[in-house]
Amino acid sequence: MTAVSLNAVTLLYGDGAETVTALDHVDLEVEPGELVAVVGPSGSGKSSLLAVAGALTAPSSGSVRIGDVDLIGLPPRQAAAIRRQRIGFVFQSANLIPALTCLDQVRLPLTFGKFSDPRDPRELLAEVGMEHKADRRPHQLSGGERQRVGIARALVARPRLLLVDEPTAALDRQRSQEVVALLAREAHDHGVGTIMVTHDHDVLHHCDRTLEMTDGRLEPLT
Ligand SMILES: Nc1ncnc2c1ncn2[C@@H]1O[C@H](COP(=O)(O)OP(=O)(O)OP(=O)(O)O)[C@@H](O)[C@H]1O
Q1: Which of 44, 166, 213 maximizes ligand 1 atoms within 8 Å of its Cβ, making it the mutation to test the pocket?
Q2: Which residue of 33, 66, 128, 155 shows the fewest CB atoms closer than 10 Å?
Q3: Does position 111 have pLDDT exceeding 90, yes or no?
Q4: What ipTM describes this predicted complex?
């Protein structure tokens, strides 16, 4: 079963003469354990793709499935439950909570519901190389370290799908390589289907496939 499957997905913003086609008949299937990169110019629709795949925005037409669940027509409460149970999000800046230690950041999602097979927060922190800083707070960490904690937090509920938006935007070259290598390892070792939007062509060699978004259309990078 695919981690996520988009079929003929179109997303329009606005109406009449003001309509913007953010996604134009997008087809995408991401398998468990696969890391797929999406590149493309500003305004081409990359964030829109993550919003639709992440059950944050309903498409204007087409179908979206997370595993065996069809997102189309799901009431907002059920879409929120799918997000919590099956989807992890990693942002440009890690968006950590200033008052919490690294360990508590990773534990936090597990306090929002019951999960069938969560990962152990301390073991996960060790896996992302942050066990020795478990008691530190975000202001005591480097950008790369914060991103590692954000990745651990996104993975703790064992999501089927991980959506990653520009994870290296604030990092130097070396840290960027390390963070994307970590995403690839987590995807491969734990069967997480991962979509990563990036402008950073230097990290693409860690990815299983690269797609290019142009004016809302998604094609293999040539
Ligand atoms: N809420 C909205 N209302 C109207 N138009 C929108 C909205 N959100 C995005 N758009 C438009 O949809 C198109 C795709 O935007 P999107 O944010 O998905 O692009 P992007 O590739 O992620 O850009 P960037 O790399 O700059 O983040 C753009 O033309 C944008 O102006």
Answers
A1: 44
A2: 33
A3: yes
A4: 0.95
